[in-house]
Amino acid sequence: MVTAIEALENVEWVKAELTHQDNIIKELRDKLYSLKAVDYGTEPIQGGGAKDLSNQVAEFEERLNKVMTKKAKLLAYIDCIEGMIEQVRPVRLKVLLYERYIKGEKWEDVADTLKLSRQWVREELKPQALEEFEKIFKIGLHDFALLAIEI
């Protein structure tokens, strides 16, 4: 089972996977748009038949649908984490979690955003924020577990 901190840290991986899925989608669309009709006026090569255009389109569309489904699940994961972060109080703890785990900011930049010392953020606020997130995570764990299993 994934812990609250692992769920937060996985957002970075999920975003990288989203970028990868976007690249696959672009590649599949490029291939789909570049398909050319088979020239039936030439003799087919023995042992291999030329795929007809409708088969190629169907194959690319099937692959594209699978990738789009995976992308939707990845986005749902991030939405779920964002929704949990949104519930964190006080607001400065929510901002800390959002800036660090959703936006991927460095801890120094998080401290600057909060207009607090880096030491205070690291030693005081970070543990508080993680503790508050964990409480919310435990309440929403069932829904999150279902999402995590699908990804």
Order of helices and strands: HHHHHH
Strand content: under 5%
| Radius of gyration from the alpha-carbon trace, in angstroms | 23 Å
- Oligomeric state, counting identical vs distinct chains: single chain
Tally of alpha and pi helices: 6
Which structural class do you get from the secondary structure elements?
mainly alpha
Fraction in helix: over 70%
Q: List unreliable stretches of 5+ residues.
A: none
In short:
Helices cover 77% and strands 0% of the residues. It is mostly helical and 151 residues long.
Task: Provide a descriptive summary of the structure in words.
The chain is built from six helices and no strands. The protein has 151 residues and is mostly helical. Helix 3 (91-102) packs across helix 5. The longest helix has 34 residues, at 53-86. The radius of gyration is 23 Å and the shape is elongated. The two termini are 14 Å apart. The mean pLDDT is 86.
